């Protein structure tokens, strides 16, 4: 921009900017002073400064700024991305705020993380006053035009937002695309599925854009049409590989369909692109754990904890999950130094839970339970029982007794500490309780099915897969061998036991009845006493049981 033209533009805007309040955050004083002078040169006279993330949060709590220019690197631990996330969570930003993240970072992981936090602007250092002026002017013009709509979004008044967005689009307004993107959220929240589908399909007819494809995928997810969501999201990623939210949504769709290996694969792709997102790493830890992959789960859990430090996302869940995963992983670490380091990491995590969240009785309970499970995993049964007794004492003193959402954790701890009968009784009661949420029922049921280590689960899963391949090829003897080997690792798993029974029955149909095989089928059925009518394998279990009674005259 020509200097004289810039000065004329600045003079024109100075009256508009004069009453505004700005905050500049940077770890280096010379940078803060330089940016402050730039803002004052544009007519913004009230400019506060801070060097730390805490300083930004405290300043925004004390004053409602119009502009915040926040460097990614700050003193005190918090970075600019974490500051923005915290300000939004605490609702310390006005809907019309302009929050700009400034950074000299060039690493893809940092830049992608910043962009995912969706600041109003991102400025790469170094920048000139003219560049800052253009960005601010663009934001102020947009804010002036959209202030009412932004306020309605902040207040979640979607019924009032929708007609304003529709009107702006129909008038071919300058911010029609912004309105369309925000209509997706508004229609979803309002339950207006037909309007959402019409909006997205109309746009796609003209040209395929990421937000419209994502809108259709989100609608399919909301309607639990998971195969449809998968199809749309695969297309979105193929055409727009940098649309990172599509990867996360696709992982959720795969998970909902029970396709956990594919969920892990797509999360791995997302993490390669943008690894610095707490929620994504936490999801990866949970999925890889369910897949029986302790190495990946450990890495993701460690990243989850690191990203949570100094962040609004920090949670006792992250530390307790890390302790459980370390307990699983340490058993497979041969190098004594590495094992010692891992065990020390678990101890440190438990210590942090006490220091950071120790005032919460339910957290104290969870910490004691996690400590008991950890000791049990290392064969320290006396210490495991001691921690369990502490947990029982805390639970007995809780108002209202043990919270339902901690029953699964409590049952797992009882089981690992050797109190298996009590554990099974508690978890079975949870599964049969009509008031229990589906998610908790599933967790309890999954543990009752397979109360074994991650490594054993992974081996059993692989053997089961091989057995199913043999079964589909009618190689029943080979399938039986794989299923029997898997059952040595995971004897209570319903799917495995029923696969074994079904294969034996198929073989006996072809070759005739064999008493030892019938006896083994009965034994497999009897191992599934924990399977209740609420279990997804219950109908199949009953059908095979009735078949054995009818055709082989067995008694149960």
Straight-line distance between termini: 88 Å
Total beta strands: 5
CATH architecture label of the domain at 3-144: 3-Layer(aba) Sandwich
The radius of gyration over CA amounts to 29 Å
From the spread of the alpha carbons, the general shape counts as globular
User: What strand order characterises the main sheet?
Assistant: 2-1-3-4-5
Find the CATH superfamily of the domain at 3-144: Response regulator
CATH topology of the domain at 3-144: Rossmann fold
Q: What characterizes the major β-sheet?
A: 5 strands, parallel
TPR repeats: 244-277, 460-493
Keywords: Phosphoprotein, TPR repeat
InterPro entries: CheY-like_superfamily (IPR011006), Sig_transdc_resp-reg_receiver (IPR001789), ST_Response_Regulator (IPR052048), TPR-like_helical_dom_sf (IPR011990), TPR_rpt (IPR019734)
Modified residues (4-aspartylphosphate): 71
Present the secondary structure layout:
Blueprint: H1 3-17, E1 21-25, H2 29-41, E2 46-50, H3 53-62, E3 67-71, H4 80-89, E4 98-103, H5 108-116, E5 121-124, H6 129-154, H7 158-170, H8 176-190, H9 193-206, H10 210-222, H11 226-239, H12 244-256, H13 260-273, H14 278-290, H15 294-308, H16 316-330, H17 336-357, H18 361-377, H19 381-397, H20 407-416, H21 420-432, H22 438-449, H23 454-472, H24 476-489, H25 494-511, H26 515-526, H27 538-552
Helix pairs in contact: 3-4, 7-8, 8-9, 8-10, 9-10, 10-11, 10-12, 11-12, 12-13, 13-14, 14-15, 15-16, 16-17, 16-18, 17-18, 18-19, 18-20, 20-21, 21-22, 23-24, 24-25, 25-26, 26-27
Modified residues (4-aspartylphosphate): 71
Protein name: CheY-like chemotaxis protein
TPR repeats: 244-277, 460-493
């Amino acid at each position: 921009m020509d200097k004289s033209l810039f000065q004329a533009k600045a003079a024109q805007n100075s009256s508009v900017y004069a009453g505004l309040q700005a905050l500049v955050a940077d770890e280096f004083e010379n940078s803060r002073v330089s940016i402050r002078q730039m803002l004052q040169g544009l007519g913004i006279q009230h400019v506060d400064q801070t060097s730390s993330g805490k300083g930004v949060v405290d300043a925004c709590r004390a004053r409602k700024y119009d502009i915040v220019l926040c460097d990614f690197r700050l003193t005190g631990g918090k970075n600019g991305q974490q500051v923005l996330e915290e300000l939004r969570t605490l609702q310390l930003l006005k809907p019309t705020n302009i929050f700009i993240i400034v950074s000299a970072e060039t690493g893809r992981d940092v830049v992608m993380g910043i962009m995912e936090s969706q600041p109003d602007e991102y400025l790469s250092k170094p920048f000139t006053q003219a560049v800052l002026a253009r960005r601010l002017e663009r934001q102020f013009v947009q804010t002036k035009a959209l202030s009412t709509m932004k306020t309605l979004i902040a207040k979640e008044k979607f019924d009032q937002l929708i007609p304003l967005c529709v009107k702006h689009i129909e008038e071919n307004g300058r911010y029609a695309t912004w309105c369309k993107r925000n209509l997706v959220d508004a229609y979803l929240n309002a339950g207006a599925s037909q309007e959402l589908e019409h909006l997205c399909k109309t746009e796609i007819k003209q040209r395929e854009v990421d937000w419209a494809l994502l809108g259709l995928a989100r609608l399919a997810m909301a309607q639990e049409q998971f195969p449809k969501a998968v199809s749309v999201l695969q297309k979105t990623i193929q055409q727009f590989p940098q649309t990172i939210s599509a990867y996360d949504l696709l992982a959720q769709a795969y998970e909902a369909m029970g396709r956990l290996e594919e969920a892990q694969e797509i999360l791995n792709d997302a993490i390669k692109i943008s690894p610095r997102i707490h929620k994504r790493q936490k999801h990866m830890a949970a999925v890889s754990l369910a897949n029986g992959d302790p190495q990946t789960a450990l890495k993701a859990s460690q990243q989850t904890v690191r990203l949570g430090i100094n962040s609004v996302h920090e949670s006792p869940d992250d530390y307790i999950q890390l302790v459980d995963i370390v307990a699983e992983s340490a058993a497979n670490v041969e190098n004594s130094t590495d094992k010692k380091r891992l065990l020390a990491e678990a101890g440190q995590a438990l210590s942090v839970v006490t220091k950071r969240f120790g005032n919460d009785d339910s957290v104290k309970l969870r910490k004691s339970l996690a400590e008991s499970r950890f000791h049990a995993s290392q064969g320290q049964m006396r210490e495991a029982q001691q921690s369990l007794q502490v947990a029982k004492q805390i639970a007995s003193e809780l108002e209202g007794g043990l919270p339902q959402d901690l029953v699964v954790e409590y049952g797992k701890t009882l089981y690992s500490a050797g109190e298996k009968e009590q554990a099974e009784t508690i978890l079975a009661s949870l599964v049969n309780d009509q008031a229990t949420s589906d998610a908790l029922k599933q967790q309890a049921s999954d543990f009752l099915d397979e109360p074994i280590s991650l490594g054993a689960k992974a081996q059993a899963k692989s053997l089961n897969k091989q057995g199913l391949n043999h079964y589909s090829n009618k190689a029943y003897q080979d399938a039986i061998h794989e299923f029997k080997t898997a059952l040595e690792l995971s004897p209570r798993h319903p799917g495995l036991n029923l696969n074994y029974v079904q294969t034996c029955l198929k073989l006996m149909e072809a070759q005739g009845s064999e008493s030892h095989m019938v006896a083994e089928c009965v034994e497999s059925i009897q191992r599934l006493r924990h399977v209740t009518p609420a279990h997804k394998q219950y109908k199949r279990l009953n059908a095979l049981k009735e078949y054995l009674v009818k055709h082989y005259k067995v008694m149960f």
